[in-house]
Design brief:
mainly alpha; 5 helices; DoxX; single chain; 126 residues; UCP030066
């Protein structure tokens, strides 16, 4: 159980940092965030909304308990990342832009899997 817990928190911490840093820039409507989003054709007004939603998702994943909310948070972060990945591909950005997305997908998958492993182990020992 200790190994599972360590893997979960390391991977989830990396995911939280990856998503959280960008989310803060989005939430405060940093000029860099707005320029990045409007460059691929989205309106500037969506930036703070997505930022706040990502911050809430990161909080939901980090706070122990609340498995239903965690499911929604993982789904929301996945859809956000997938939508951004698709938008970059559709815009014409090449494979040199794909590495952060692939890392993000891997972190989401491992964090999600280990979250469920921890839940199963917690219920098995209780």
């Amino acid at each position: 159980m200790k190994k599972t817990r360590i893997i979960f928190w390391v991977v989830t911490g990396l995911l939280a940092v990856m998503v959280g840093i960008g989310a803060v820039y989005d939430a405060i409507s940093a000029p860099e965030a707005i320029a990045h989003v409007t460059r691929i054709g989205y309106p500037a007004y969506i930036v703070p909304f997505l930022g706040v939603a990502k911050i809430l998702g990161v909080i939901a994943i980090l706070v122990p308990g609340y498995p239903r909310i965690k499911e929604w948070a993982y789904a929301g972060i996945f859809y956000d990342l997938f939508g951004a990945f698709y938008s970059h591909i559709a815009f014409g950005d090449g494979p040199d832009m794909w590495a952060p997305f692939i890392i993000g997908f891997a972190l989401i998958a491992v964090s999600y899997i280990y979250s469920h492993k921890l839940q199963r182990q917690t219920f098995a020992t209780a």
